[in-house]
Design brief:
Chain lengths: 339, 325
């Protein structure tokens, strides 16, 4: 789904005339990034047709990316408001831990646990997100500091609850949602894709999205125009937290453990995906589809390098370089936009 | 107050009296009065730091006054938020335009009052992009503002076009009063002429326009009345047709129209930067309120530059200075 991402945009652009067309195509990072991803898929597919371009491998890759995608979509909203959320990895772990605890309390293998678990995970994530939003919006403390603080609090809190020992998911969850497929695709991927599509629509088509862009573009202008800036910020950070909670539950299902020490760089991965996808760190611009592509570029690189036998550490090097290029493109576009 | 007369008759549309506003220990407004009647263009003028922007922010609901009353159609109102002023039909074009650069003109036009689609989708918050685009384009055309494309972000428009969008947005929604804070500051001659035309057209629809400007040519060209602020209070009101440039400058700088030589003296002080503060004559006709609270310093010029000192020649200002010492 990510490969064709650039095309509708290109077609839409084709409807305009003259220099504006060139400007928009050249200025649209989504188009560039989609081309890069497509080129990578083609290259790896041509080099290793029988191992890379198989449905098994591609599904594996998508399955691994599905959880990061949820974090990155939430991060997209936050960054469009010109904020940042460093706490997502910690909130993910904390939510997974509280969900596991709650499921244990109602009987880990019981049917009740299968709806208590996700409910608790999502509610926990939402609570952390709302806390972030309140402090950022009403406390006027920079989001970087607030979410760095809640990252420490949530990770530390998870370690306190578990005593530093990973909790295991119930086998019913791990072997159920963790493995189940629908139409040959893991259910976790379906959930992540459905949430992503819904939020892409929310951002592009709904008032919620419009106000999110407005705040990142010019907070004072938004306030003067009657946008409830503080309330909207609480909702946006709440959404990011909620998605981190959901990601925590899916992660618990997929990997079977709470992974208290496995998510300390989730925030950076999510931010990298969002920025590679063309969302401006300065706020006001960005798309969910760009973020989807931004999640898959590192994922495809890692997978492709493994199959080619390149040292996987190269993936980090290349993603770092892509990140810098992406931010450079954003700045270049901004300069082009200002007269 | 001391000079000039009101051109318009009948009950004022919007009337502020005794507005007080302080930022910390700096008093931006010290009992300011302001009056607008329906269907007139009032210029609100004053030197830097006279309190024009603060008064505008208070009357448009951006900030709350510390004291004083605002009457709309004779009824006391209190604007706690921008929305309340907007619901009352008061719009503002801010000096910095207050546009979201990455949004399209139509998105800016409808920011905070988006048109939603009908039925279930509308209830879910879905935007009616087409309706908003069409309406924004129609309003811009009605006001003679042409945009080459309405699907590009505002950041790609020229300064004049951005100004057009900001002005069109305000006048479209304003039912009673539009405040325009330096609407021509960033514009060339031709575009300035267009904005002034626009102001007249808006006035002709019965909406009052308050023009905040430093440009005396613009003020003389377009306004019906002029109200002068100095040191946070209204010091004079004029009919534009019957006032000379010298009188305006005198009112702004603190001299009175009866004593034009003082205005010249003030100008001379400003030129030399040596205000004779202690020697300032006491005046009984000074426009600032004798019952106002003591002023800590000039509203914005804390450095005691010439203008503050020149203006500080009124007796109360001098008294306040004495108190400080």
């Amino acid at each position: 789904m990510s490969v064709e991402a650039g095309e509708p945009m290109a077609a839409q652009v084709g409807g305009l005339r003259g220099r504006a067309v060139l400007d928009r195509v050249a200025g649209s990072q989504v188009v560039w990034i989609a081309l890069v991803l497509a080129a990578m898929l083609v290259a790896f597919g041509a080099l290793r047709p029988h191992s890379f371009a198989t449905s098994f491998n591609l599904l594996n890759m998508v399955g691994d990316a599905a959880i990061l995608l949820l974090l990155a979509v939430g991060m997209t909203f936050v960054i469009i408001t010109s904020g940042i959320d460093l706490s997502v990895g910690g909130v993910l772990v904390f939510s997974a831990v509280t969900a596991a605890k709650a499921m244990e309390a109602v009987g880990a293998e019981s049917g009740t646990a299968l709806w208590v678990g996700p409910l608790v995970a999502v509610a926990t994530g939402l609570a952390w997100g709302v806390l972030n939003g309140f402090v950022v919006a009403y406390g006027r403390i920079p989001a970087l500091i607030v979410t760095l603080g809640t990252l420490g609090m949530s990770l530390g809190g998870a370690l306190l609850i578990t005593g530093g020992v990973d909790m295991r998911a119930s086998s019913r969850l791990n072997l159920g949602l963790g493995l189940d497929k629908f139409l040959g695709v893991p259910e976790i991927v379906w959930i992540s894709a459905a949430v992503t599509v819904a939020l892409a629509v929310l951002l592009a088509q709904c008032r919620f999205g419009r106000h999110t862009y407005a705040i990142g573009s010019n907070t004072e202008a938004a306030r003067h125009a009657g946008v409830r800036v503080e309330r909207q910020l609480v909702k946006v950070y709440g959404l990011a937290g909620l998605l981190a909670g959901l990601a925590g539950y899916l992660s618990l299902a997929k990997y079977g453990i709470t992974g208290v020490s496995a998510h300390s760089t989730d925030n950076l991965q999510a931010i990298a995906a969002v920025v590679i996808g063309g969302t401006s760190l300065f706020g006001g611009a960005g798309t969910v589809i760009g973020t989807v592509i931004g999640v898959f570029i590192p994922a495809v690189l890692q997978n492709g390098f493994q199959i080619l036998g390149v040292k996987p550490f190269w993936q980090q090097v290349v993603v770092g370089a892509v990140l810098i290029v992406a931010v450079y493109l954003d700045q270049w576009r901004r300069r082009a936009g200002d007269h | 107050m001391s000079t000039g007369q009101s051109a318009a008759t009948g009950a004022p549309l919007l009337e502020a009296s005794g507005i007080v506003k302080s930022y910390g220990h700096v008093e931006a407004l010290r009992g300011a009065d302001f009056t607008v009647h329906a269907g007139e263009v009032v210029a609100l003028i004053g030197d830097n730091g006279a309190g024009k922007s603060t008064l505008t922010k208070i009357l448009s609901g951006v900030q709350r006054p510390d004291g004083g009353t605002i009457r709309l159609d004779g009824v006391p109102v209190a604007f706690d938020r921008v929305e309340q002023a907007r619901e009352a039909g008061i719009e503002t074009v801010h000096q910095d335009l207050a546009l979201c650069a990455q949004l399209t003109p139509a998105a800016n036009f409808f920011l905070g009052r988006e048109v939603l689609r009908g039925g279930l989708l509308g209830r879910l918050g879905f935007l009616d992009h087409k309706a908003m685009r069409d309406r924004a384009r129609a309003e811009c055309e009605r006001l003679g503002i042409r945009l080459k494309s309405d699907t590009v972000p505002v950041s790609t428009l020229s300064g004049g076009q951005r100004q057009g969008v900001a002005v069109a947005r305000a006048v479209t929604w304003a039912r009673r009063v539009v405040f325009m804070d330096e609407p021509t500051a960033a514009l060339g001659v031709v575009q300035t002429g267009r904005v002034l035309d626009l102001i007249r057209r808006v006035r002709d629809t019965g909406v009052a326009v308050v023009l905040i400007s430093h440009n005396m040519q613009d003020v003389k060209a377009v306004s019906d009345r002029i109200e002068v602020l100095r040191l946070g209070a209204r010091v004079a009101r004029f009919d534009t047709a019957r006032v000379s440039m010298e009188e305006l400058v005198a009112a702004m700088t603190g001299a009175t129209s009866e004593a034009m030589t003082d205005a010249m003296a003030t100008a001379a002080e400003e030129a030399t930067g040596e205000p004779p503060r202690a020697a300032g004559p006491t005046r009984t006709d000074t426009p600032t309120r004798a019952d106002g609270p003591p002023r800590a310093d000039g509203p914005t010029r804390a450095d005691g530059s010439t203008r503050v000192d020149g203006a500080g020649r009124d007796e109360r200002g001098a008294a306040a200075r004495e108190e400080e010492r």
